[in-house]
Amino acid sequence: MANTTLADYTVAADDSSAANKAKADATCTGTDDHVDINTAIDTVSAAGGGYVYCFPGGYDIAGAIIPKDNVYLWCAPHAAHLTWSGAAGGYMISSSAAALLARFGLDGFYLNVNDAAGADADMGIRLYAAQNCLFRNLTIDNCDGGDAFTFRTFTNQHFFGNDFENIVVNGALRGMYSQGVSATEYVQGNYFRNIRLVDIGGHGVDFQHYTRLNRFYGLEIDLTAENAVAFKMGILAGAVYNYANQVHGMFVDATGLTAAECLKLLYTKQTFIADLYHLPTDWPGTFLTDTGSNSYFVFDSLYELSQNNMRMRGKGVSWQFAAGV
């Protein structure tokens, strides 16, 4: 049972138990429940910050939940289900495009981006210039045609120092997408741990220019549709200022895709990748592409299952292979 004493404001769903409704500061009606959740976030943020707890149940989300500084929005693991019912092209959770978001937390929620009627929100979570925020124990389903996570910057503010832990995405055009803007607006220094991106129709990870010092520890990507690229880091026409990104432990499954459908396994520049596993063992499409200039790769302990303990090291576009090293 969740410890609801870690809450400065509590919200119950329309289908929460009678006992939980009696304890809640606000009880949703089952329609436009994002309004009550946003009221809770605003109240706690205005008081200087704290915890908002959502009791188990189903919540109707017809407009964006808007994160605020110093607020931790949480529930028991996957006990609160957020289901989109708004217009196509919306975001379930979206921070302000003109303000820094600092020290926000989101923990435990299940997000169903498409409701039973088929309304398509396209996007799950969009964050602008988030810094020192925590996102953990989340499942995002049915981001058909859109991005589960979108990371952006704005004028002279980095997307920096955030943690993403125990994340599952089931169905998306892109699992995680980011784009910095300039040398003063980087996507940098973020940590991603235990990330599982399933049924990805486009790019598993797509971090474009102005990305640096990001770390992935445990990344699984399941590509199931055409025009797929598993991992894309720092590649865009004229992409610049990308370096020191790392992946430690990546598994990619493209079983059943043809070479035409599975465009690339890796499309990267200045990225370190350790412990890479993939299926099928004979990769159907392009294994690796880089942009040539200013590229540096190190692949350590690269296993293709059919080639036991194969290690590959290279710089630029000059590659050396040494089986059994």
Poorly predicted sequence stretches spanning 5 or more consecutive residues: 115-119, 292-296, 300-325
Q: What percentage of amino acids are in beta strands?
A: over 45%
Helix content: under 10%
Rg, alpha carbons? 21 Å
Question: What average pLDDT do the residues reach?
Answer: 81
Judged by helices, strands and strand pairing, the structural class is mainly beta
What is the terminal separation in angstroms?
Answer: 50 Å
Number of strands: 27
Structural commentary:
The protein has two helices and 27 strands. The model is unreliable at 115-119, 292-296 and 300-325 (pLDDT under 50). It has helices spanning 18-23, 33-46, and strands at 9-12, 26-27, 50-54, 57-61, 71-74, 80-84, 91-94, 101-102, 105-107, 110-112, 123-128, 130-131, 134-152, 159-160, 163-179, 187-188, 191-207, 211-212, 215-223, 228-233, 245-253, 262-268, 271-279, 286-289, 296-302, 310-315, 318-323. The strands form three sheets. The chain has a 22-stranded mixed sheet that branches. Strands 14-16-18 form a three-stranded parallel sheet, with no helix packed on it. The chain has 325 residues and is mainly β. Helix 1 links the parallel strand 1 and strand 2.
